[in-house]
Amino acid sequence: MLADVRRSEIVAIVSRERVARVADLAETLGVSVVTVRRDIDALDDAGLVQKIHGGAKLPGGAGTHEPGFELKSTQSTQEKEAIGQEALLLVQDGMAIGLSAGTTTWVLAKALSTRKNLTVVTNSVKIADVFQSARSRVSVILTGGERTPSDALVGPIATASVRSLHLDVLFLGVHGVDENAGFTTPNLLEAEMDRALIGAARKVVVLADHSKWGTVGISTIAGLEDVDELISDDALGAEAQRVLRERVGKLRLVSIAATSSEA
Asked: Which of 67, 152, 168, 183 has an alpha carbon within 20 to 30 A of 60's alpha carbon?
């Protein structure tokens, strides 16, 4: 495959998926990892993709583009499964927990659906459906509100519904993680809702795979220092790990095989 054709295909894949891993691109294109990295470097120089650790993403800074739930649920699936299993270790019987809307928290919800003696508060219709479909014995409180493209319920009704609640732990999904912008989302109302959930929680745990690093949505949910723990995967770059170890309460890294380590 000629370089120009190969690079056009990489741009098409990144445009469709928003984030693509080097290993996945190499397998899809039938070339070496070194070749893909060289292609990404060239495309990054041309401004057609943005190079990130382990892959590439759509270029751009702060934005309001919000991919739908179905698309996001197909991205970084192994990382999300491993992160969800690590988060599961923080849940004890009798807890009241919050699950913000998002595909990683949705993965955690599936793991929690077989548990009992839990109360789950969520602003995600998709997450509530997980427990309903499994006929779970978990008590689920679904907020009201206006629905977003990522199936989050937001707005004044949603935020008012959680302000009188007290959660033991909140598991928060985010659109992006950045050294300066913190944890962000492309939806202003979703940021407001997430801040209300944070205000109701004794402990805040962010779930974000490595592809979220360097992505900035238009609205900051919280600063890096404002969360107690961040669970990510070990494809996270060394510089990102350094920043996060210094700024968040605790950084937990899991392997794609769901073997965890703590930093």
From this structure: 152
- Alpha helices per DSSP H over 113-247: 125-133, 156-162, 188-200, 238-247
What distance lies between CA 75 and its chain's CA centroid?
10
Q: CA separation (Å) from 99 to 42, 131, 215?
A: 40, 12, 21
Q: What are phi and psi of 115, to 5 degrees?
A: -80, 170
pTM of the model: 0.75
- Cα separation, 196 vs 17, in Å, equals 30
> What is the rounded distance in angstroms from the CA atom of residue 240 to the CA atom of residue 178?
9
Q: pLDDT tens-digit profile of 146-191?
A: 988 778 999 999 999 999 999 999 999 998 999 999 999 988 899 9
